[in-house]
Each structure stands twice: as C-alpha cells, then as structure tokens.
Amino acid sequence: MSDEPASNRPPRTPRTPRARRGSFPKVIGLLALVGAVLFGLLPAGTTTAAAEPAAQPAAESAERAESAERAASDEVRPLAPASFTHPGVLVSQSQLDFVRARVQAGEQPWAAAFDQMMASPFADQNRQPRPRAVVECGSYSNPNHGCTDEREDAIAAYTNALAWYLTQDARYAEKAIQLMDAWSAVITDHTNSNAPLQTGWAGASWARAAELVKHTYGDWPGAGAFADMLRNVYLPEVIGGSHSNGNWELTMMEAAVGIAVFLDDAGAYDQAMSRFLNRVPAFIYLESDGALPRTVPGSGLDTPQEIVNYWHGQSTFVNGVTQETCRDFTHTGYGLASIANVAETSRIQGEDLYTGHVGERLRHGLGLQTRYEREAPPSWLCGGDITRGLGPVTEVGFNAMGNRLGHAMTNTQAYTESTRPQGSNWLFVAWGTLTHANQLN
Hints:
Alginate_lyase_dom; 3-stranded mixed beta sheet; lyase; Alginate lyase domain-containing protein; Glycosyltransferase; 2 domains; globular; lyase activity; single chain; 16 helices
C-alpha cells in the first residue's frame, strides 16, 4: 500500500480561526462610522474603509495577505450554486443516461468497462460490510485498523450505486445502502497520522455513492443518518486541508466538495473550493508562475531551496511538472485524478473550471506525466530517474480537456486509450472509462 508517510509534511503554521479574526475592532469601527454619519462628521462620499482601524491585528493582517493572494489568482473563486444539481458528484443524470444507453447497445469502450466493474469484487453481492467505530491509519498503513475495509466498502458502495443505475436492478441499490448504513451506524472517528488522507479517500467514494442512491433510487430510510456521518465524522477532518504533499489536500478537497454537494452545504462548498483553488497552482507548475512554483499561504515554504526540497529536488520547472513528479508518478496521479474530479463536479454545478487555469494546469500535468510514463525522461527531469506507475487516473481529465474542449493531447490520449478500460486504484479512483470515456454531456 502506498499510503503517504507523515514525515513528508513541511512545517505547518497555526492559524487563528477565521470567524474570530479582528471581530472586535471591526465592530468598534462600524459603530464609529455610523455615529459619524448620523452627526455629519464625515464628508460626502467617504467609504466604510475610513472606519477601519489604522493598525490591524496580526491575525487580521495575515487574513488580508491571504485574501490578496487569492484575489490575484488566475480566476475568481467559484461560489456554490443557488441550488445544487443532483445527482451532481462526479457524474450527472445526463452522463449516466448516456452510459446506460451505450452499455445496453454493447458499444465500446463502455461495454468492456461495465463488464470489468461487474466482475470486480466491489460488485460482489455476497460482500458484507466491515465497519468499526474508530479507523486507525498510520503511515504506509501501519497500523491498518479498518483502513482497507473502509476504503473498499466505500468503493463497493459507489460500484453498486452505478450498477443499480445502469441495470435498474434494485438489488445493487440495496447492497449500496447496506454498506452505507452499516458504516453510518458505527463509525465515530479516524485517528493516527494518515487520518486526513484516509478520510479523504473514503469520503470521496462515500459521497459519490450516497449522491447516486439518494437522487436516483430514493428509497433509503437511512439517508439522514448517513448525512449526519458525513457531516460530523468526515467533513471536519478534511475541510481544513493539510500542508502535506499535494495529493493529500487535493483528495481531501475532493471529498469535501462531494460531501458539500450531498449535504446541500453552500458554506462548506465555498470553503473547500477556495482551498482547492489555492492548492492546484501549488501542485502543477505553469511557466506563467515565474521562476519558482507557487506556494500555499501558511505552508512555511519561504526560500527557493525549501521549495525545491518540497518538490522532491526538482529545480528545473516547465509546464506540467508537479510537486510530486520526482517522488513518483503514482502519488502524482492521485493529485491529478482529484483535480479532474473536483473540476468535473464543479462543471456539473455550473462553474466550468476546465476553461481557466485549473484546466490548463491539468492539461499540461497530464501531458507531461503520460509522456514520460511511456518514454525515457530527460536529464533535467528528476535527474533522469523517475518512478512510473501513473495508474487509471486520466480518463476524466482527458475527456474534459481533449474531447469536450478539443485540445490536442497526443500523449494523454495514447496513454488513456492504451489503458482502457481504466478501473479502480483500490483507494478512491474508480471506473473512469465507464463514466467518462467520450462523454460530451
């Protein structure tokens, strides 16, 4: 198992909770402004900025700096829609209908992808859930107390939810419900060093499964209890992010976004999307970033050497190189998959991130990694020594950037088509060819 060691985390800077920052000075300033206006002490046209205290508290200054950096991003942070689209976590109703028609007609690559999914242990109708109250996951799955069970039950729930919709056989929906109800009745916490990553992996799959069952099957008495589980056990663990390697936080934000959609929680959606848009530029480099990659506010990366070290020794930066390219392509693939999955959910919810810098970074990231998955790397890339193993992670991103938007992606296309049908990585990626191959909906 390739769980990430906690030792890879750079130092984390503690933050003051956002809700408490600078609240008292702002209240005093506002009262002073109101009094000044009432008594005619301010000239016409004076704005509310005049009421701000001249010297901001340190926490308020840090918040302003972070806000300024966010405002300088390539695109405006998307807000939650006025009402969420359901089903709307990774796959939409029209996408599901497209796939079902292709599978029923026996068309490729969907028919082979469907057969692959149905032959997997995740679709086994004899599967029994293995919940536990506390899932304890250490680095490299040591200890592994329920970690594998949780991830695989979550993927199995998503697998059965897809099988239900594509076959309209209620047995699969009931199996997904059995798995979800078993865990929501028991789990209370995730512990040890890999708890944030584990919660992200399982949470991403749980959200997809729950969204499909609730909004396409409907007969689920335990839906409220499952929502409580996601709200109280999973969302608090992932919503705050992590200053560890990029794939951690990107997967955590994928889980947070999916959970927010399922819960119709606009505040959580905005918070997760804001963090996601800060992390993507710090994971995939574009030459427009300048001489060095961007960093996430509060990451503790202050010098060029610290940044190079965080990028696993890579000091030559070109379009598409990622923060984990020189670690290995497997962990890089996790990050690329989550970027595509969040962008896909965002598009379904009405904000197309593929057309901005997120899509551009994803396109170049997929292109560089798929190129050197198939050919020898140059000496400037990781000293000419890379560790391959990208995995089944390209279908969603390639479909969006190559098929839907029409970008030439020769390397990504060659890799994607040669690895079809892309199935599951047994962590959180599952059935990309089935759901997103040649998908224009």
